Amino acid sequence: MTAESLRSVTVERTGPGLFTATNSRGDTITFTTGSHGGFTPVELFLAAIGGCSAADVDAATTRHAEPTRFSVTVHGHKAENADGNLMTDLEAAFTVRFPQGEGGDRARAILPRAAKTSHDKLCTVSRTVEAGTPVTVKVIDED
User: What is the model's pTM?
Assistant: First the structure.
C-alpha cells in the first residue's frame, strides 16, 4: 500500500441524526439518519455504486457523442437476517440516449460493453461490494 493508493473521508456528527463527511480535498457532503430529510448512508451507498459506474460509462461513450439523456437508477432491498442488516438484490439500470448520426450510433453500440466493463473490471465501488472486502472497525480512546 502506498500514499498514492490511500483514499479517506472523515465523518463528523454535526447534530442529532446529522453528519458531514469531508474528503482529503476539503469537500463535504451532509447526510442524515433519514429523520431530517437528505440522503441516508444507504442512499449514499447506492449513489456511490451508480456514480462510479456512470463515470466509467460516461468516459467511454462521450468520446463519440454527448448524450441527450444519461441516468443510472440504483436500487436494492434493505434486509435483516441473523447476521444483521444488509442490502440485497442490488441493480444499476442505465437509461442513456444519444443523438442520431454516426457518433450517436457508435456511442449506442458501445454502451452495453461499457456498462459491462465498468461492472466487471473498473468500478471500484461495486467490485469491492462483490468481492466482500472486510471492513475493520476500531475505537480510538482520546481520554
Answer: 0.92
